[in-house]
Prior knowledge:
Layout: E1 2-4, H1 9-19, E2 23-30, E3 36-40, E4 49-53, H2 60-76, E5 81-85, H3 105-115, E6 120-124, E7 139-142, H4 145-155, E8 161-164, H5 170-180, E9 184-191, E10 197-201, E11 210-218, H6 222-233, E12 238-246, H7 252-258, E13 263-267, E14 275-277, H8 280-289
Parallel strand pairs: 1-2, 1-4, 4-5, 5-6, 6-7, 8-9, 8-11, 11-12, 12-13, 13-14
Antiparallel strand pairs: 2-3, 9-10
Helix pairs in contact: 1-8, 4-5
Ribose-5-phosphate binds next to β11 and α6.
Amino acid sequence: MIIGGSASQALAAQVATELDDKLCNVETKKFPDGERYLRIKEEIPEDEKVCVIQSTGYPQDENMMELFFILDTLKDMNIKDITVVSPYLGYSRQERRFKETECISAKATATLIQSMGIKRLISINLHEESICDLYDIPVDNLSAMPAIAQHIKETFNEKPVILAPDKGAQNFAKEIATILDTDYDYLEKVRLSPEVVETKTKNISVEDKQVVIIDDIISTGGTIVNAINILKEQGAVSVDVFCVHPVLVNDAVIKISAAGARSVQGTNTLKSEVSNISLAQTIANHLKSL
Ligand code: R5P
């Protein structure tokens, strides 16, 4: 049985359809003081395998708390076999301590999530692979790149160059480029003199090319706007922007479009105006393989 938390109900419904599984919704509402009410709408047999799908992006605290409410209710119902799919796992961006006495929020949330007695956690392109090590239960970090590559294949009339906005994202570009059999590169800062730093493509020219930028997260859009400006300066004919997690703080899409992007697209790990690539099949195929 698939249970869709309120942050991921459409995706949960798609996964249930892919798997031909039962879908059980949760009913939630907010009390006047802001506290949340939650009810699982159906009785579930104790021996049922249950998969809860709930992203824990903005508003992170509410969505995380809702996940805990669902899991605690399932425990009360004596359900033993629970898998959580949190396609976007909130609080994953601080997975280590940069200054003494800081909270490692990825670790704190890991402690809470696994204390709920779940068997397995599944997420998509976690901010750092090392987040898996914060858990004692199995954590599957799936990649959205095959789904994004498929979407590019279906919508582009010629093979674009795949570009990562920084070295940290180059493996995403490589994964997509390998599937599409095209070139990839990343932007690198080069110090030309003590005063002058230039950011440019590491290995290939983008002049007269269609370019696709890929990153895991678009938050404020600053990283992408900077990359578009550089690619345009270097003569790219078009720039389309793809991300896994469209966090999209404030007017990030407007800023990116204003910088000259032909399109901005993301997956449905988070609900947003650009979440048009569904990962239902990616998740369903993985659940089927377990
Ligand atoms: C950084 O590690 C990530 O891969 C993204 O590049 C970053 O989170 C994007 O943030 P923003 O959209 O605020 O530049």
